[in-house]
């Protein structure tokens, strides 16, 4: 039963960390909005899905790569990858801001109850998914291979592949930059102020609408970066991938303590590793069962998630 | 405009309309119009299979309409996306539409199971070109499609051994890892493959297999298992869209194991989505129109504007069973069902078409295909 885990431990761990970082970035989209508005942005899963098409379109239609093209190298590789990343972030960021503007802002201004925003979020989510379904005729869309998946080296029997290394390092940098932004920048401080006490923040002259729009934008940008890594690793997207990935990232956010950025980080990584280890030990059919049993157990002992307490303290 | 003028204009219009209707109906009286349906995935990830099949049905109807001037046969397209959940939404309407006297399909086994209650209730005769799940024609199964369900394709209890043999052909001391996508089609097929493996000389099952949800994109745990097991042959019994993602990741991991799949992967789109990683993949499926003859394929392309695809022969033959029934005056569902059940004829490619009492085709088998230069290459029937 544990033979696979022992034999392939490092391969699995690297794969789990890479997947975990994708979860971290998507769960930032959930956790940032929750931290400020105390509301689950259910449309985040579809913002992720839309972001994946940003990368595919850049690779396929702007740089004209096809399934049979040679992968890019050198400077061109850098240009294509950065353009795809920026495009995915742009698409997801823009979608997130539009979602806030169309589905939430007016409801918030009217002071409607939380259930109305919840339904509005689900509605927007379904709309985004259905629009993409119609645009792609419900088909899976393959992304051409831009990055050659070279095996760089072998560490403890595990292949270290270029795409995995790029995903882990770049995602970690993006996470670090975001965390610094929230901690140190003026806007970051305003976001935290609104998160702690909306009324007091308003009295201190914080522009609430601007803070909320920025929160959606930042969450969208993180989610968009995740979309780029997803397509770079899996070279594929489909109108319905958002549900599975969004559900996992939301679980990661809750596991880490929703509303808390550090929680999203550790929740995402834990979930990525847990999924991979559980699939290898028990079989993939047990992946979801294991993940949710662990989630329930964590919530039983730490109802606010692994880092939930920190949120309570900052809010107190 | 004065009132009298308006009134006379109205009268003239009414007379003209009535006259038009009469002349139209008298023109139509000479032509008998009937509808047959096709059900399968016409959109969604599996659409390629359905589009290939419905084109063959349309081709058969086009030939029939051209050869029989007194008939105008229409094809009703029923899109179930190959998904049981969608099938259970579209099947009630199709079952209740009495204008449809026969249905080619459903294409997929899971969708067939979901649709059957409505078609049994409506007495709608079915001939599937590609639903291969064994339970559909097994009398002790809740999925038993009798009396309406028939199929012109062999079943998975025949495909399983064929896939086991074809996947391991020429591989000495084959160590085989088999996994499925948890679907109604893939799980039993995996069972038949695994049951047949000990009978293949030198082959053995390794690693305990896996069962992966069909929404999976990260196959790294399955690949880890394959590597630990030392498998040199990997068989996936699911469908082509997931197979393409998997085989790319398998090759990226450095594995050179033979990749094989059943007729769910047997689709040109598999090679398109997986690119170079699909090269050399071994698939079981049924011979296409081009295998029947270059002349037949050329005629199809000329008529339909595109090349024929997977299950073209089966879909064409299934449609022709209904069309010959219509020609013989079987224009109600009950009469058509009797016609199909007792049908005996020779289909395209010389296949003898007749059904066993449970709805299975009396003869038939699977061929082996290898992806060569991005195309499905028929290597002949698997014996």
Automatic annotation (TrEMBL), chain A:
The keyword Nucleotide-binding does not apply. Keywords: Amino-acid transport, Cell inner membrane, Cell membrane, Membrane, Transmembrane, Transmembrane helix, Transport. The chain crosses the membrane at residues 12-35, 47-65, 77-103, 115-135, 155-178, 211-233, 239-258, 288-307. It is found in: Cell membrane. The keyword Ion transport does not apply. InterPro entries: ABC_BtuC-like, ABC_transp_permease, BCAA_transport_permease. GO terms for molecular function: L-isoleucine transmembrane transporter activity; L-leucine transmembrane transporter activity; L-phenylalanine transmembrane transporter activity; L-valine transmembrane transporter activity. It is a multi-pass membrane protein. One of its GO terms (cellular component) is plasma membrane. Belongs to the binding-protein-dependent transport system permease family. LivHM subfamily. This is Unannotated protein.
From TrEMBL, chain B:
Keywords: Signal. Pfam families: Peripla_BP_6. Residues 34-351 form the Leucine-binding protein domain. PANTHER family: AMINO ACID BINDING PROTEIN (PTHR47151:SF2), LEU/ILE/VAL-BINDING ABC TRANSPORTER SUBUNIT (PTHR47151). Gene3D superfamilies: 3.40.50.2300. It comes from freshwater metagenome. InterPro entries: Leu-bd (IPR028081), Peripla_BP_I (IPR028082). This is Unannotated protein.
């Amino acid at each position: 039963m544990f033979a696979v885990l022992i034999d392939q431990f490092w391969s699995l761990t690297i794969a789990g960390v890479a997947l975990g970082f994708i979860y971290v970035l998507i769960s930032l989209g959930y956790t940032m909005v929750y931290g400020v508005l105390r509301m689950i942005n259910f449309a985040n899963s579809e913002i992720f899905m839309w972001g994946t098409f940003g990368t595919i379109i850049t690779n396929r239609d702007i740089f004209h790569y096809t399934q049979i093209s040679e992968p890019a190298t050198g400077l061109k590789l850098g240009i294509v990858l950065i353009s795809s990343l920026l495009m995915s972030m742009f698409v997801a960021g823009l979608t997130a801001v539009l979602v806030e503007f169309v589905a939430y802002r007016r409801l918030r201004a009217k002071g409607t109850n939380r259930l109305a925003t919840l339904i509005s979020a689900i509605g927007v989510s379904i709309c985004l998914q259905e629009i993409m379904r119609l645009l792609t005729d419900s088909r899976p869309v393959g992304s051409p291979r831009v990055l050659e998946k070279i095996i760089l080296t072998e560490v403890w029997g595990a292949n270290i592949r270029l795409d995995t290394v790029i995903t882990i390092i770049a995602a970690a940098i993006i996470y670090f930059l975001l965390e610094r932004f929230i901690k140190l920048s003026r806007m970051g401080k305003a976001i935290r102020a609104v998160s702690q006490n909306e009324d007091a923040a308003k009295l201190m002259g914080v522009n609430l609408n601007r803070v909320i729009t920025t929160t959606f934008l930042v969450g969208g940008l993180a989610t968009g970066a995740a979309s780029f890594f997803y397509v770079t690793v899996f070279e594929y997207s489909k109108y319905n991938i958002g549900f599975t990935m969004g559900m996992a990232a939301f679980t990661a956010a809750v596991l880490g303590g929703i509303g808390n950025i550090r929680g999203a980080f550790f929740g995402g990584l834990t979930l990525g590793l847990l999924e991979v280890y559980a699939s290898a030990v028990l079989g993939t059919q047990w992946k979801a069962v294991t993940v949710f049993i662990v989630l329930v157990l964590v919530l039983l002992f730490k109802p606010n998630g692994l880092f939930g307490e920190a949120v309570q303290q900052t809010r107190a | 405009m004065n009132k009298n003028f308006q009134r006379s204009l109205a009268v003239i219009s009414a007379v003209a309309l009535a006259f038009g209707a009469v002349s139209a109906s008298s023109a139509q009286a000479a032509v008998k119009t009937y509808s047959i349906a096709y059900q399968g995935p016409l959109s969604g990830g599996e659409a390629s299979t359905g589009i290939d099949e419905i084109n063959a049905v349309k081709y058969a109807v086009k030939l029939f309409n051209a050869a029989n001037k007194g008939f105008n046969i229409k094809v009703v397209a029923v899109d179930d996306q190959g998904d049981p959940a969608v099938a259970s939404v579209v099947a009630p309407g199709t079952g209740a539409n009495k204008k449809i006297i026969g249905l080619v399909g459903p294409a997929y086994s899971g969708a067939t199971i979901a649709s059957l209650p409505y078609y049994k209730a409506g007495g709608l005769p079915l001939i599937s070109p590609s639903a291969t799940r064994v339970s559909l024609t097994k009398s002790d199964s809740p999925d038993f499609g009798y009396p309406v369900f028939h199929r012109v394709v062999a079943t998975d209890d025949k495909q399983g051994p064929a896939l086991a043999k074809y996947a391991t052909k020429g591989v000495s001391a084959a160590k085989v890892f088999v996994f499925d996508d948890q679907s109604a089609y893939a799980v039993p097929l995996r069972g038949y493959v695994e049951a047949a493996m000990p009978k293949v000389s030198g082959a053995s099952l390794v690693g305990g297999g896996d069962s992966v949800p069909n929404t999976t994109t990260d196959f790294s745990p399955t690949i880890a298992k394959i590597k630990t097991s030392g498998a040199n042959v990997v068989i996936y019994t699911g469908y082509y869209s997931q197979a393409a993602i998997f085989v790319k990741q398998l090759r990226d991991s450095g594995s050179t194991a033979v990749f094989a799949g059943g007729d769910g992967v047997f689709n040109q789109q598999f090679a398109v989505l997986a690119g170079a990683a699909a090269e050399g993949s071994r698939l079981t499926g049924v011979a296409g129109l081009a295998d029947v003859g270059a002349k037949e394929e050329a005629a199809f392309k000329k008529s339909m504007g595109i090349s024929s695809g997977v299950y073209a022969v089966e879909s064409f033959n299934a449609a022709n069973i209904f069309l010959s029934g219509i020609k013989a005056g079987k224009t109600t569902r009950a009469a058509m069902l009797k016609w199909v059940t007792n049908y005996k004829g020779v289909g395209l490619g010389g296949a003898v078409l007749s059904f066993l009492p449970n709805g299975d085709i009396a003869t038939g088998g699977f061929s082996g295909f290898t992806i060569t230069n991005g195309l499905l290459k028929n290597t002949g029937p698997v014996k």
